[in-house]
Amino acid sequence: MDRTFHITVVSNSSLPRPEAKHLSSVFGLLSSVLCFRSCVLCLVSLVFLTFCLIGCTTPEEEPIWEKIKIGDLAPRRGGKPPAARLIKTINFDLHIFEIPAENIDKLDDTRKNLYTRPLRFNSLHAFGANSFSVHFGQIRMLDEIYNLLLAANGKIIAKVSLMLADGQDESIAITGLDGPRTIFFTSTYGSREGANIGPGILILRLKAQTIPGSRGVCNVTAYPVFSPPIIRGTIPQLEARAKRGEFPFSAAAFALKMGTGDFVLLGPKEYISDQTALGGLFFSNPKGSLFFSKTERKPPELKPAVRIFLLVCTRTNY
User: Fold this and answer.
1) 185-200 burial, b if ≥16 CB within 10 A, otherwise e?
2) Are the C-beta atoms of residues 280 and 297 closer than 8 Å to each other?
3) Cα dist from 215 to 6, 61, 137, 210, 311, whole Å
4) pLDDT: is 301 or 71 the higher one?
5) In a 3-state reduction of DSSP, which class is residue 36?
6) Model-level pTM?
7) Which of 36-50, 65-79, 134-148 has the lowest average pLDDT?
């Protein structure tokens, strides 16, 4: 019996390949990983670039008040705050009057209500010999003194407000000298002397100094000084050199303790028209000023005058 066998050749391509499928999965996974990695790198690069751009910009500072807490504004407790340095000062108002020279005797009515006890001098004799007179008063007397000066047909020609620190001096111009001149005065030794000065100005110099252990009062010194012309605000060395050319008339100096409400009245003992005498140069105005009559209705008259200085202490910070 003939048996016929049919052999069918089956191609391998028609069968699934397990290993090919496995490789395809591996390659797909690898592609996904590489894609994910690329995305991550892009994201990281973007973040880094953003950070760099932000870092290049100067950060805006917080307003200072945002750093202050309410507790910082509260007063300190449990201890004293740091002591501030106290600037010691004294304040003055200087009233400058002129009265007719013919009424100088009326100053006696003003002076008799005042005192000389607190005043100190280098030489009382020399002070008076130079025709200087000074008296002390307190606030309760001020209005009366003011009215007596006005009653003597006086008028205010200037008012100067001053503030002196401890040890500081201040100068008030009195009159000018337009050329060289010899000024005669009585020295502290009682001798008659002459000072060759000018051009420049005659000034009243004031100086205040603390008194150790005392509060509310200070030592005040006043004296006339000749000063050569000084250009303020220039080179300090030049100003110092000009100041060395000053001539202080120490024989006409006085000093006293002063506190708030105290005042001194400085004026001439007598009228001296001579402008080569210290007292005449400091107090007298021989060229005259215009004065109105208090009793008659007539135009003002030009009369020789004398200057009176009323120095009032308005405040002390000592």
Assistant:
1) bbbbeeeeeebebbeb
2) no
3) 140, 48, 20, 9, 20
4) 301
5) helix
6) 0.72
7) 65-79
